[in-house]
Structure formats: structure tokens, C-alpha cells
Amino acid sequence: METLEKDSTHFNETINAAIDEKVKGKKLEIEEKSNRIHDLTLEINNLNNEISVLKNKIADNEKKLTANSAGYNNQSSIIKSKISQDIEKIKQYLS
Q1: What is the pTM for the complete model shown?
Q2: Torsion angle of the four alpha carbons 68, 73, 75, 81, in this order, in degrees rounded to the nearest 10
Q3: What is the largest CA-CA distance in the chain?
Q4: CA dist 63 → 51, 58, 78 (Å)
Q5: Distances (CA, A) of 55 to 20, 23, 52
Q6: How would you label 50-87 residue by residue, b for 16+ Cβ within 10 Å and e otherwise?
Q7: Coil, strand, or helix at residue 1?
Q8: What is the rounded CA–CA span in Å between residue 15 and residue 85?
Q9: Each residue's pLDDT tens digit, 16-71
């Protein structure tokens, strides 16, 4: 009878140890996955912030390029007009 009691106790201890091991393993896995989600969320937020900064830089650069282009075109038109006027004056002078 004592042997059956020892066997039963040993069996229960083995079962309890197996359950504890599987539960602890799953809890550890949950914790690791939660930490990974947290880290990835931080990385996503940082990348979104970097994207916003880059979009702002792009917008600023586009504005500057547009302004420079408009300024160049304006100055170019003025110079072309002046050259045309000078050519006309030269033609009149030579005639």
C-alpha cells in the first residue's frame, strides 16, 4: 500500500512539474512576444517621425526650388527682353 502511495505521489509531482514547465514556458513566451511588440511599436513610431521630418524637408526643398525656378525664369525673361531691345537699337543704328 505504501508503494502505491509513493507511486501516486511521484506521479502527481511529475504531472504538476510538467504542467508548471509548460505554463511557465508559455508565460515566458507571452512576455517575450509582448516585449517584442513594445520594441516594434517604438521603432514604428520613430520611423513615422522620421518620415514626417523627411516629408517636411521635401516640402521645403520643393518650395525653394519652385521659388528659384520662378526667379530664374523671371530674370531670364528680363535679360532676353533687354537683349532683344539692344539688338533692335543696333539694327536701327546700323540702318
Answers
A1: 0.60
A2: 180
A3: 138
A4: 18, 9, 22
A5: 52, 47, 5
A6: eeeeeeeeeeeeeeeeeeeeeeeeeeeeeeeeeeeeee
A7: coil
A8: 103
A9: 888 888 888 899 999 999 999 999 999 999 999 999 999 999 999 999 999 999 99
